Request: fold
Amino acid sequence: MISINLLPYLEKEKKANIARQLIIIVGTVGIFFLIIAFIQIYMMKSISSLQADIKTKKATLAKLTKTIGDIEKAKQDKKILELKLAAINSLEGNRLYPVQLLDEIASLVPTNNIWLENISQRGTRLQIKGVGRDNIAVSLFMKAVEMSGYISSVEIISSKQVRKANTDLQEFTLSCVLHKGK
Reply:
């Protein structure tokens, strides 16, 4: 008997070809999705590591900001201390000035001709009140005071003759300008 193949072999081959193409397409799509999944996982890991890095950087920034604030406060404290030290040094340098000034004036007073009654200072002005034997003694004392290293100029404010203990004396008031550096 003769046998007839009702299914043509070309159709079988066509179906096999379609099945093969379908497997290739599904495999390609599957590989594509796997690649995308791996890229997604890699990106998520990168993002989480970058977020952790940002968190540590922010903590470091906060710590450094606090340190900078402490440094700025220390600088301000240092400036204040330097100003205080400058004031103390200025006071320390000038604390002997009144004593030296009075010693200088006392050394200029001729003991037999001039007697000082009052010395007062206001700022850079010095006022000297006293009694002298005569106008010449007062004039010599005035010139000696003007030659002093502590005084830049001397003016006579008043001079009048008074009688004390049965003696005619010259009562005087001098106004002196102190050197500015003192």
Notes: The chain has two domains: 11-95, 111-178. The radius of gyration is 54 Å.
